[in-house]
Amino acid sequence: MKMNRWxxxxxxxxxxxxxxVFAQTPPxxxxxxSLDVAKKIxxxxxxxxxxxxxVPVVVVIIDWSGSPVYLERMDGTLYAGVDVAIRKxxxxxxxxxxxxxxxDLLAQGGLxxxxxxxxxxxxxxxxxxxxxxxxxxxxxxxxxxxxQQEGLIAAAGLAALK
Length: 162
Prior knowledge:
By secondary structure, the chain is an alpha+beta fold. The protein contains five helices and four strands.
């Protein structure tokens, strides 16, 4: 049984590489994100959520290893939202890409369903890697509203770095 899982995992990786999803060389990892920068990103994300009345949400910023650096949730956010936001951020950091990439491929069906078998892949929009000087220093994860709104909130948080 374990051998079948291992073979399945290898097949998924080979297909993923061949499909072009991972064809571009992702940016390298840099030094872990600082608390001050994490707070700045989270504040901008919350401002976007409040401005659009997309509440309640939880925002988490992790370093590139997947460890939380900063987490804040609005009153009334679903308990599960905390775990979802963390998983989105960890997926974005681990795979060095937006979780929307996985969601888009999954929506295609067929071979796109293979991403359900990738460990730590979260195929729901709202997770983005954080780049500083062309290097991944962490990731943001947002949960609590619609996936599209979560993606926009996360992007607004990253815009604070520009």
